[in-house]
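User: I'm curious whether this sequence folds into something compact or stays loose and floppy. Could you predict its structure so I can see for myself?
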Amino acid sequence: MTAQPPSAQDAVPSQTQIEDQIPSTVEKVEKRESKPNSEASDSIADMVSKVEADFQAGLADYQAGRKDAAKQEFDNAFNALLESNLDIRSDNRLAKEFDRVVDGVNRLDLGDLTADAEGQKAEPAPIDETNGIVPAADPNVRAKAQAEIKSTHSDLPLMMTDQVAGYISYFSNRGRGTFERAFARSGRYHDMMVSILKQEGVPQDLIYLAQAESGFQPTAVSRAGARGIWQFMGSRGRGYGLQHSLWVDDRQDPEKSTRAAARHLKDLYAQFGDWYLAMAAYNSGPGTVQAAVRRTGYADFWELYRRNVLPKETRNYVPIILAVTIVTKNLSQYGFDDVSMDDPLAYDKVTVNYPVDLRLVADCVDSTPAKLQQLNPSLLRLSTPKEGAFELHLPAGTKEQYQTTITAIPTGMRLWWRYPTVHSGETLASLARTYHLTAKSIAEANHLEGAQLEADARVVIPITPSKHPLSENATYSRRIMRYKVRKGDTVETVAENFGVPALMVRRWNGLRSNSLHGRTVLALHVPVSPNSETASTAPATRAHKPVQIATTKVPASRSAKASEDSSDENESDQASVLHHKVKSGETFYSIATTYKTTVAALKRNNSNVATLRPGMILIVQPRQ
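Assistant: Here's the prediction. I'll summarize afterward.
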């Protein structure tokens, strides 16, 4: 279900090209705003304006080559919509802006921004390549196919034309690989799809529309931004119940999207009374086909084809589907005897109402993240959504094992911790090296007294958010903190002071090395505890809120030592030394800023401690 693809003159579209393809919602909002005194209307207009500003900033950064900054701006736009108290579906302006941002970002090449090599990767939709060619008809192929369709059973009408014959020749020769891969993959979903099509009362052979569109690849994305096996655009998909967010895209759910496609095609048939016109409308939209019918007076696809009143892509679309149908139903005649379908995907279902990393799920059910991604293609990240329920698909027969095993991991830590099975020869020390932890922390988490580990036993790996080796799932404050670079600073030292991975500091600032030469200011986001009650509601202020402290007088000698970094030289006015209890998400910098001291002084007063941990008591000497 693709729109007319843009010209591929450049691998990286310009900001102007992108904006031309995505009409500005801000302008529409300003023109439509008829009640400036309405508080509700103002809040929606303000939200759309903010989202649009973040989106435009992201486009500007992307075009300038600052992809890391662009990713942050796009995340800001998404989060502003998703975390607001406004119902996106209740207002047309919000819904359009959401689709504008989602579809706009989907047009860009942001795949290299993920820190996780195992993250979901989109596949190009085969229909783009197939539709880009118009193969010539071979008279012999046409005659052979014409004879075959007379004995070919199909609940769709089959017709032989030069265009259909041309695509049959293509799939039998140059496009053979495309056909073979799609047919083999169809086995994973065939039974489920045919059952749904039958339930919805539409021809079961419409399954070949999906084969032509996506090759049965759930993560297929067209050049126009259509997604999934049935290639839905965002707005059309949502009209049939397919929602999408930063974490989940229902268009990539094989079962949900099949039901949506069946209902959409049924509605189109009711409108046009012809399956060829219904398929054409599925591709280019019912308005396009309806306009062509009104213009010519003919409600017949082939007459519209002959009169050249449909988009080129739509004119090729129906012949492609017919060719796929004919070849699939006559495999041996076209030399595909040796091609077999994949086995159906079997899985258990379990509803989770907490976020969990697929790598942890894989540990629990003795599987792999790749297998779980295959079973859950609607997940856009390596985790389930942070909020709401999600139907997680597990390898068949592992539901009970998962539900039993996952209880060993605290709910708030299921995005971070791991639960691997110990292999022969592994030790606490080797596990500590693998996960960048200390052997002591692993021993404490598992209540181990000795250093010996039994083979095949499970071990809890208590990875902390700030030390997580793959930080895509890390929870960071949305608010940007501006840090003024000082002499001697490096990416590593700044990262250590703020308790964030150096990788993230480089990503947020578009840096390629550890050097800060030429930089005067860094943009940073402080980490927020994933199990904090306020993590999802007020992360922006957590690191900067004044904290409750206990004030204690200390000996003068200690106080004098603690005030070496102070500009006050009056010994009679020595300040009280404070005791500060470290809270989750706090950093050396945020604490030093709160008490108007320096990171160097804070570390010096606390035996040059290198790492902060929640619950730690720090001695603080404020500046005077």
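Summary: Residues 3-37, 111-119, 468-474, 528-576 have pLDDT under 50 and may be disordered. Strands lie at 123-124, 220-221, 347-352, 390-395, 481-484, 521-524, 550-551, 578-581, 617-620.
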